[in-house]
From TrEMBL:
Signal peptide: none annotated. Residues 393-622 form the Cullin family profile domain. It holds the Pfam family Cullin_Nedd8. This is Cullin family profile domain-containing protein. Belongs to the cullin family. It comes from the Eukaryota. The lineage of its organism: Eukaryota, Viridiplantae, Chlorophyta, core chlorophytes, Chlorophyceae. SMART domains: CULLIN, Cullin_Nedd8.
Length: 746
């Protein structure tokens, strides 16, 4: 082996050239046998020997150069001429075939010259043989054909966009060449193809959008835009590189959506407002999907949604106001109606609930529960729900609506589940009402009436609503109401205890007496009238007072006769009738047991009632549906000169009747109570803030007061200013001598 004659460069390369020519003939499809193992080993061994010979016969450097020359010669002789004679899709097919052949040639030659790769290339830090082969293709073929190749690929993509079928596999393969020739980078793909693709895409969709915006409705345009975006995503999956996806979609979104958003959303008869009006939920969902793709694209949609909901709400307010005014005219009434439980106003609350359900459903389904659309819905409802409806506030109407749901004989005939569901919806609506304290006061009034007159249909529903209100508005909001419900339970136990006490003491009353003891702080304030009761009632009151004093020390009873009820038996000529009436009505009727006729002055003297209360009382028994008492002269009004007597001729088909006392106008009283409570709340908030901060600017103090109280009501700025002045007078605060807008806590 040591005596082997060295292989000269010319001799060795001549042998290698024969092998390379055989490989080229195979690649070109010319008749030629495949390499057998012996031929392959002979070629490999030749290179090995020429690289391992002792200097000056080590031809590693020369062979490395010859390797590159072999590729360059093949490309110049065979590849470039064949590519120069083709265009468009044929060029792409030829290029892909030539690229496949070239990679095959690189694989075979790098095997023949493998010894170079293992030693010479590593020792001299040269590019590996595989990379040299690819670089030859890049420098000679790619640089010459890249423009024509790029144009041909873009032409195919445009054809596909216009609906033609194209060879997607071919496009993918050609783009694979761009990627591979980047040599582990995306430079070739991005600079020589992607930049042009994005530019062409932008121009293509700019043309399409300008046509569609003129001829299509908003829904049709959105369908086309959505389909284009879907097809572009499909294009990326089929043959473009994944890194192109976001850039490509951004161009499409800019041309189809961003540039025409305003025109699209405000299109007459088919824009966003029209879709909302016509309940086109599928189109609205599509609009959301499309415009969420572009920066701040949903803001205009949310604004239109907000305006639409607000408009629908204001329409309800207007309809109900007009209906109530019309009803007043028909009844010949003037002035604002106090009947907040009327059917129109009940229907208004029901309509607002339905409206909220409808658009909440839109937010959850069409707008994917987006916080932006929840905010728009909230702002729209806050706007119209706080408007006055036929002279009443929404807080008052909601309280009346709940009362109608919860009382016996209400107009809402619903199942237990439906009532629970409706109550939950009312509480959700309450979140939009700024005057929650007013709702609380009206609701408390109506709750007290239900509880005291035994009109509550279900304790479970009452407690359920209080629980929901507590969760929504806090424990302080419902503490008094919960106290009222508890009072009624305790009162029943107290009554049982009283009955046992009577038996124990051996006392027997001439009338049946049931007393409900209430805690003053929980219940609304009631007018306490000192009235001269009949002796039968006086006896009962005195006995109960004895019992209460013995059972509860240091507590004072105040009797509210206006809330009491009595069952009185009327012995009329035709038959006896049991009459359920107010305690004061019963006291008036029993006066006529002893006297056949009484004047207005005599009645007033015996009952010791003020004129307003007495006239209301007499009217309920003389001029209303049940005329238990007759008067002279006959008329529809009560006069101080009238005389009153028992109406023996009165009769009714029922054996038991209920005679109501005309209700007082509670609205004014509630408003006064709310105003008073607000003054206390503002005072407390100011003192609380100043106590912790010690010194504060006027503007900052006002903002902090509003922030603290806005959960319950929206404080009036003038009222806050007035309360600050009042607290200064009462020496809780003082103004700074040098700066009048600065306050100090004393």
């Amino acid at each position: 082996m040591t005596d082997r004659k060295p292989i000269e460069l010319a001799e060795g390369w001549s042998f290698m050239e024969k092998g390379i020519q055989k490989l080229i003939r195979l690649l070109e499809g010319e008749p030629e046998d495949q390499f057998n193992a012996e031929q392959y080993m002979h070629l490999y061994t030749t290179i090995y020997n020429m690289c391992t010979q002792k200097p000056p016969h080590d031809y590693s450097e020369q062979l490395y150069g010859k390797y590159r020359e072999a590729f360059n010669k093949y490309i110049n002789d065979k590849v470039l001429p064949s590519l120069r004679e083709h265009r468009d899709e044929v060029l792409l097919k030829e290029l892909y075939q030539r690229w496949g052949n070239h990679k095959l040639m690189v694989r075979w030659l790098s095997r023949f010259f493998n010894y170079l790769d293992r030693y010479y290339v590593l020792r001299h830090s040269l590019p590996p043989l595989k990379d040299v082969g690819l670089l030859c293709f890049k420098e000679l073929v790619y640089l010459e054909t890249k423009k024509r190749t790029k144009d041909a690929v873009l032409l195919l993509i445009e054809k596909e966009r216009e609906g033609e079928l194209v060879d997607r596999a071919l496009v993918k393969n050609i783009l694979g060449i761009f990627i591979e020739l980047g040599m582990a980078t995306m430079d070739c793909y991005e600079k020589d193809f992607e930049e042009f693709l994005l530019s062409e895409t932008s121009a293509f969709y700019r043309r399409k959008a300008s046509e569609w915006i003129e001829q299509d409705s908003c829904p049709d345009y959105m369908l086309k835009a959505e389909e284009c975006l879907r097809l572009e995503e499909e294009r990326v999956e089929n043959y473009l590189h994944v890194s192109t996806k976001q850039k490509l979609l951004k161009e499409v979104e800019a041309e189809l959506l961003s540039n025409y958003e305003t025109r699209l959303l405000t299109k007459e008869h088919s824009g966003c407002a029209a879709l909302l009006k016509d309940d086109k939920t599928d189109d609205l969902a599509r609009m959301y999907r499309l415009f969420q793709r572009i920066p701040k694209g949903l803001d205009p949609v949310a604004d239109i949604f907000k305006d639409h909901v607000d408009s629908e709400g204001m329409k309800l307010v207007k309809e109900v106001t007009e209906a109530v005014e019309l009803a007043k005219e028909k009844q010949g009434r003037a002035g604002p109606s106090r009947d907040t439980g009327s059917s129109h106003e009940q229907q208004y609350v029901r309509a607002v609930i339905d409206l909220h359900d409808k658009y909440l459903q839109y937010v959850s389904t069409c707008f994917c529960n987006s916080s932006l659309f929840h905010k728009s819905l909230k702002e729209a409802f806050e706007n119209f729900v706080n408007k006055s409806v036929a002279g009443s506030t929404s807080a008052e109407l909601m309280a009346s609506f709940c009362d109608n749901l919860l009382k016996k004989g209400g107009s809402e005939k619903l199942s237990d589940e439906a009532i629970e569901e409706t109550l939950e919806k009312v509480v959700k609506l309450l979140a939009y009402v700024s005057d929650k304290d007013m709702f609380a006061e009206f609701y408390r009034k109506k709750l007290s009436r239900r509880l005291l007159q035994d009109k509550s249909a279900s304790d479970d529903h009452e407690r359920s609503l209080l629980s929901r209100l507590k969760q929504q508005c806090g424990a302080q909001f419902t503490s008094k109401m919960e106290g009222m419900v508890t009072d009624l339970q305790l009162a029943k136990e107290k009554q049982q205890h009283f009955d046992d006490w009577l038996k124990e003491k051996g006392k027997k009353l001439s009338i049946e007496l049931s007393v409900t003891v209430l805690t003053t702080g929980f219940w609304p304030t009631y007018k306490s009238i000192e009235v001269a009761l009949p002796r039968e009632m006086v006896e009962g009151v005195e006995v109960y007072r004895q019992y209460y004093d013995s059972d509860s020390k240091h507590r004072k009873l105040t009797w509210i006769y206006t809330l009491g009820t009595a069952v009185v038996r009327g012995n009329f000529q035709s038959r006896a009738i049991e009459m359920q009436m107010n305690t004061l009505q019963a006291a008036l009727c029993m006066l006529l047991n002893d006297m056949d006729e009484l004047t207005y002055a005599e009645v007033q003297e015996r009952l010791r009632l003020p004129d307003d209360d007495l006239q209301r009382l007499l009217h309920s028994l003389v001029c209303a549906k049940y005329k238990i008492i007759k008067k002279e002269p006959e008329s529809r009004t009560i006069s101080k000169t009238d005389k009153f007597s028992f109406n023996h001729e009165f009769t009714d088909r029922l054996r038991r009747i209920k005679i109501p006392l005309p209700p007082l106008d509670e609205k004014k009283k509630v408003m006064e109570d709310v105003d008073k409570d607000r003054r206390y709340a503002i005072d407390a908030a100011i003192v609380r803030i100043m106590k912790s901060r010690k010194v504060l600017q006027h503007q900052t103090l006002v903002m902090e007061v509003i922030q603290q109280l806005q959960r319950m009501f929206k404080p009036d700025l003038k009222l806050i200013k007035k309360r600050i002045e009042d607290l200064i007078q009462r020496e809780y605060l003082e103004r700074d001598k040098d700066n009048p807008t600065l306050f100090k806590y004393l």
